[in-house]
Hints:
By secondary structure, the protein is mostly helical. Helices cover 61% and strands 3% of the residues. The longest helix is centred in the first third of the chain and has 25 residues, at 20-44.
Amino acid sequence: MDANMKAGAGNSANNNGDDPAMQKEKQQRHEERMYAELKAQEILDLPPDQRYEAIMKLSPEERRAMAGNLKNEDRQQMLNDLTPQQRETLIAMNNPQQLVQIELQQGKIFHAAYSERQLEEVMTDFWFNHFNVFVNKGPDRYMITAYERDVIRPRVFGKFKDLLMATAQSPAMLFYLDNWQSVGPNSDVAQRGQRAGKKGFNRRRQNVNFGGQNQNQQQQQQQQQRQRRGLNENYAREIMELHTLGVDGGYTQKDVTELARVLTGWTIEQPQRGGDFTFNERMHEPGTKTVLGETFKEDGKREGERAIEMLAKHPATAKFISRKLAMRFVSDNPSPALVDRMAQTFLNSDGDIREVLRTLFKSPEFWAADSYRAKVKTPLEFVVSAIRATNADVNNALPLAQNLNRMGMPLYGMQPPTGYSMKQETWVNSAALLDRMNFALALGSGRLNGVQIDPQRIFNGTAPTDASAAQAVLEQALLDGDVSAQTHQTISKQLSDPTVSGRQLDDPARPPNLGAIAGLILGSPEFQRR
Length: 530
């Protein structure tokens, strides 16, 4: 065998994973996984009240190894057997960054399920989705709690211009859409960067034979940083397309660029430390700008405030917001007449959200028969309505949040600024409906960890001993008795299946499986709609 063939054989061996270092690392990972599974099984074999103490006796390294290698079902069982305080402690020790997100998700579910101010919860969810921020973008993980609590929630029924301004100055939004690092091309900061770049170029010419690879890499990083610190149009584009005017609102790319220039200097003081909004004059683009035909003379922070006020009061904004509200409460395709009336109220009331909602709720379109069950529930609406309809007791909302993940709606987890869709086609497909049915059956049968449901409570007394009677009562309780003949017959047929009812031919006296009946009704087409 010649040298080239030997080299090729050696490369082949390395490619096949025979490199000693790779083999050692692979073996180490295998041993860690085996140890984690063994240790987890030992802990799961203990009585539930002894498991937390056993976990805490592990070293930090052992806990991390076990958390990183556990099967999902084992991890879930281990967490569900802990008290909320124990669960938070364990998550904080193993993954403190995740704790904020988990608590935020659970808090949203608890608010939605148990708040006595249901319209406020609906509107808080609506406006957060409208001004969406992604929880897993850098420090937004820590800013998003204050964003929803202090920026969105207090303004859900106020003036739209106040809500828009508050979101524009929110550190969470500034970081999410990158406006915090937007620098005017002719600003003091940009000019200083250009002067520094020229000096660096001259130094590179003088030291052309002495710079190593590390120096070149450092220069490239500095160049990339300067590029990132240029004019950023992300927020200017989204505030017009998604927050105010809408994609057909009559603006141009030049308007986007000009608005981005207006909003330079709107930034965050020490964003990695959770700083507040600040206006940095040195980052602001000097000179006159023109947005949507309106001239903005150089006026620092006030330029941005005027531009945002202009957008908030624009007729296109009135129509865009009104249509989106009508889509949320009436149908995916609300009538233009309703949208026009709501938009006129918006303009007449200076963007008073409460008045726009009053026009909506008093409209004949809202109360029309064809608006009844015209909307398919989002996963969040479906899960929360099931909890409320069954009077379920939730002591751990984490499994509910995980079910929402499976249904395609991780809370605070929408990465694009569009927010989650309110339209039927997004949520109606075979996989999504199967996930909903599985959730409904688990909830009705009491197999959903952290959630307790007693079907007997729905009957306000003694439950019927006959499956047909129980089905009729539950259809009345959960669907207000408004169920199609096809749905009723399908559920009855399912209940005759022993694998569903739990009743065998030799035990006809066995009481009906109330959990299965409730689950099938919760999974019915009628319960998917509102």
